[in-house]
Amino acid sequence: MSKKQLYTLEYPVRCSPSILYEFLSTPAGLQEWFADKVDERDQIFSFSWNGSIDKAEVLESEENSFIRFHWLHAPKDEFFEFRIEKSEVTNQTILVINDFADKKEIKDAGQLWGYQVKDLFHRLGN
């Protein structure tokens, strides 16, 4: 099995970091755009899509800055992360997504994130 590679996607967002963080770090916020249903218990998030459930634990987070998840079924060194940054030049809020995929699947994975982020932006009124 080939080792997955870390890749990064960046999206400019027109909203405050605190509002964006709510959509990235709470079950209610994530359920708005990321999965059909989201529950959380003891730092373990359960994500449901079309009846199938996948679980991820929160590895690390800092309010209004970032949250890092680890899929329970994935290798220990893999994660997906939502990071909120400010552009030094434009002062615009930037959503940075870090995730892992096989090299040949990075383009498809990036497209999937793009669709989901588009849904997030719709919810945010972007």
CATH topology: Alpha-D-Glucose-1,6-Bisphosphate, Chain A, domain 4
Q: What would the principal axes of the Cα set say about the shape?
A: globular
Give the DSSP E fraction (strand runs of 2 or more residues). Answer: 35-45%
Main-sheet strand order equals 1-7-6-5-4-3-2
How much helical structure, as a percent, in the residues? Answer: 25-40%
Q: SSE order in H/E notation? A: EHHEEEEEEH
Provide the residue-averaged pLDDT. Answer: 95
Using only C-alpha atoms, the radius of gyration works out to: 14 Å
CATH C-level: Alpha Beta
- Low-confidence spans: none
In angstroms, what separates the terminal alpha carbons? 40 Å
- Give the CATH H-level superfamily: START domain
Say how many strands there are.
Answer: 7
Protein name: START-like domain-containing protein
Organism: Flavihumibacter petaseus NBRC 106054
InterPro entries: START-like_dom_sf (IPR023393), START_2 (IPR045736)
Domain START-like: 1-125
